[in-house]
Amino acid sequence: MDRLLVVKNGPGPFFVNRVLIAVFALWLCVSMAALAQNSAPRLKANAPFSIQATHVLGLPNTKNNCNGTLSTHDNLLQFQQSGQSVAQIDIASVRDVFLGEESKQVGGLPMKIGKAAAPYGSGRLVSLFAHKQYDTLTLEYVDGNGGFHGVIFLVAKGQGELVTKELVARGASSGTHEDQPTTRSTSEVAHENN
């Protein structure tokens, strides 16, 4: 055979096998994506909800910066430290729910000493990995006497949105003041025209 190229008359048996493998791989990827979309758990309206949280400040008879369990039961938001009494807020009295993000450096004094001892300024690299992300959950509510109060919680990254959705589903209003148009009273408009 003195030819450089060999011409075939039609697809060979390996072509059919490759097409079948490609179709099967495509079907497998699409079915995995469909299963992943349906695997999210459904929240029941009155099912109890509980996560670990840090109470920064704001609850009566509760120490600041203490860890505990933040949960919803019926129409109450409850925070309980281990071995302490439960602090409760009526979810219907929550006027605003705000969600933010915070980053904390972890490791304490040993991490600081390790960063200082690292040669050639490589302690800065350690600082990149020594941070933990948190969600800050701020609630504004009205107590039984009509007093206006605020509470701040730190929860794990991604948990704040779940708590916000749970509270809004149970009757709390969420703070979206940026979307609301500002209205002025007639006295403000009259004073502005003078």
Can you describe what's shown?
There is one protein chain. This protein is α+β, with helices and mostly antiparallel strands. It has a domain at 49-177: Pleckstrin-homology domain (PH domain)/Phosphotyrosine-binding domain (PTB) (PH-domain like), CATH 2.30.29.30. Helices cover 32% and strands 31% of the residues. It has five helices and seven strands, in the order H-E-E-E-E-E-H-H-E-E-H-H. The longest helix is centred in the first third of the chain and has 26 residues, at 13-38. It is flat and about 100 Å long. Residues 177-186 have low confidence and may be disordered.
Write the layout of secondary structure elements.
Elements: H1 13-38, E1 49-57, E2 66-73, E3 76-80, E4 86-90, E5 94-105, H2 108-117, H3 123-129, E6 131-142, E7 148-156, H4 159-169, H5 186-193
Antiparallel strand pairs: 1-2, 1-7, 2-3, 3-4, 5-6, 6-7
